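Please describe our next protein:
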Amino acid sequence: MKAFLFVSALLVGIAGISTYADAQNYPWCAQYSGRGGGARNCGFTTFDQCMATVSGIGGICVRNTQYVPFVARPSPHTRVRRRLRHHPRTR
């Protein structure tokens, strides 16, 4: 029984150390109609994708005010090539 508890605690600890999931960050939100305001889903990359989702079930598409575009940064291991200037030798 002690071994089972130890292994369980170890697995829970390892699961807690693992990487976390980032929240969705997309530019379009579907605001579904309903009593009390309905639900909101901000998981759409295009306006057309959002409109296709709300068509037939009611709702509108609005821009996500919390959207921050992803900016890819170069890897720290990427080598930057620089052009070497050719300096003629003087004799």
